[in-house]
Batch of 2 targets.
Target 1
Amino acid sequence: MMINKNFFLDTHKYLNKIAKEIIIPNIGKLSENEVSTKEDNSKVTRYDVIIENELIEYFKNIGFSNIISEESNSELIKKNEYLTVDPIDGTRNFINGINKVAIMVSFIKSTRCEFAIIYDPIGDIFYHTHNNFIFKNHKQIKPQNYSNQIGFLGEHAKVYFKDIITSYTEKIRSRSIGYDVIEAIEGERSFLTVYGSKIWDLFPAMSFLKLLNFETNLPNMEFDYSKLEKKIIFYANL
């Protein structure tokens, strides 16, 4: 399996097919029996499961064997090399008909991210990282230059991060880490906080934020599991 431009072009084409056939026709139109609540009180829909299964089959067919996904996590996390899949990041938005959802993928090898994908299925915008660059619809883009801090801090976070971000313009969270990162890429958000994250949304987000030259309260930006229980802030260095 070659990780090259054709790989990303083909993956974009496949994700667009999923968007057209599953996400766009059903966003905001789910019946009660298509939605359930998980043990952690998060929501899952039948379409999360359908898309996840489609993505697992797609990536297995092109050579990825160790795949960790949101609805069928496994002991594969202990492997040195693995692909993560988040079929619908922003499930509550999907349920409520809010067009801020993303499909997120990352490929981790020896605590380094080889590539990450954040796909906006509504706008058909494909962002990916590879070889220490960020691409938007397969064209390399440069990090933004932020003139002021913009983002959202809850009351607890304001205290916790009072010495990191002291002056900012408030921008409410999108309820999708992936979409928050898209806004950071586009210069519409200069920081975001991540609490209780999972490997399939944190690691793709980290890949982009690292290349956006964001600062963080993490001791390092390696892709290891110790970060999953931390309260993390990523912020632009003005």
Target 2
Amino acid sequence: MELTERKKKVLRSVVDLYIRTAEPVGSKVITELPDMKYSSATIRNEMAELTAMGYLEQPHTSAGRIPSAAGYRLYVDELMADYRLSIDETKSINTAIEEKMQQVDKMVEKVAKLVSQATNLPAISMASRSGDATVKRFELILAGQGSFILVVMLNNDEVFNKLIKLPLKVTENDLKVLSALLNATMTELTAEEFTPGLLERVMRSAGDAASLVPVIVEFTTGKLRSSGSASMAVAGHSRLLGLPEYRDVDKAQKVMTSLDEETLSNLPAVMQNANGTKVIVGPENISEELKDTSVVMTKFDIGDGLQGMIGVVGPTRMDYAKVTARLSYFAESLSKMFAKPETGQLPAPEAESE
């Protein structure tokens, strides 16, 4: 059966009407649309064929049709019209961001709340380091008799330092040699590439400073691993309760309890190679707990090697055009807000005590 332009027009009308009303759509309602010039019988036939093709579903024998997951997928990919934000909507979002996002501290929690308020859906916000962190440079700075400061600069311009006690026989010249050795052999490596074999080879070449190498490697690999960790926040769980789909308490509870860090932890991997906004409809979700919902996500750049991600979780009936427009605008605004010129300078070290 061919998916003609007429079928696509009928399907788009069914999805648009169902998004607005949350009620099954009958052929009579579609014939009353100003741009629909087909008879009621023609539309009934098209809806029956769309149902046979898997794009529509009929909840009850005498009721109208509702979109299936495949119908929503086609709608998102080909049929939905662009949603243009009104001036009031853009002003509202800008004002909210300017007033409530004055600093990066607690940024993830604040963004989740703002997105939930703007979309009236549960919202997800994440921040993580983009790509695998590697060491860009080591510096060993003598801090007085008996100690030195280890400075580790990562490829995302994060800088960490630690105050380390010196063995009695290690001199300032030994530190200079070790620093050169570390920069020659241990830069541009991820945490997993700091292998026991590499550690042994560097210790053999480090002379009197060999005992410092395990301490340096342990500190460095720990910072590399923590640099790749993500922070996450979810806000607006209770907004689901206002939607017709979740009037069933058991169904609502199942979805709400699934909106946790463990269930949502796979979403950054889904976005890793995605450009722009990504829509995951119902059964396409990786997590079994989200199979009856849709997820819309987009990325933004925070700077300092950080990648942000925002998204919403809701019924497959959500207004995809409006949601994607609002998320895209949020992402663009947040990227501009966090943009800042690069200095390329190391901050003055504030050493951690060993």
